[in-house]
Write a structure and sequence with these properties.
Distance between the termini: 59 Å
Order of helices and strands: HEEEEEEEEE
Radius of gyration: 18 Å
Helix content: 10-25%
Number of strands: 9
Oligomer: single chain
Bound molecules: copper (II) ion
């Protein structure tokens, strides 16, 4: 492939990347040889539902689990119960839409049932900021 073609391809790829937006982070949590990986389809922002895919592992091998629940919490705050249930996918992952209703640091307690019993994993340090392009009024509690 010539250099002109390569430059052209890079320009196309950059345009696609900008059009699709920035991909979100992948966060992990581990306990007792279990691990969950949470991949956000875009960076999570205040009051914007964000699709998130969860994948589970035991000793680094992918495992299938059931009854995946994400308990959204802010450390040290009583935020009410926000415990969306994730939908199982054919590839063994689970997908859930998460909504963070206050800016600041959030944690997610992920629970699931594995073949060997219940799993409980703490995903910590999820920084939520307002959407810089949003014009919504701030919500008072
Ligand atoms: Cu809060």
């Amino acid at each position: 492939m010539g250099s002109w073609h390569r430059s052209f391809l890079i320009v196309i790829l950059l345009c696609l990347l900008v059009a699709c937006g920035t991909p979100g982070p992948t966060l992990t949590a581990e306990a007792n040889d279990y691990r969950v990986e949470m991949t956000f389809v875009q960076p999570p922002l205040l009051n914007q539902s964000v699709q998130t895919t969860l994948r589970f592992y035991y000793q680094d091998a992918p495992i299938r689990v059931q009854n995946v629940v994400c308990d959204l919490q802010m450390p040290g705050m009583v935020m009410g119960s926000m415990r969306p249930i994730a939908d199982p996918q054919t590839d063994g992952s689970h997908v859930v839409n998460l909504l963070f209703t206050m800016d600041g640091e959030w944690s997610i307690i992920v629970t699931a049932d594995s073949a060997d019993g219940p799993i409980r994993l703490y995903v910590e340090g999820i920084a939520i900021t307002p959407d810089p392009e949003a014009t919504q009024p701030s919500v008072q509690e």
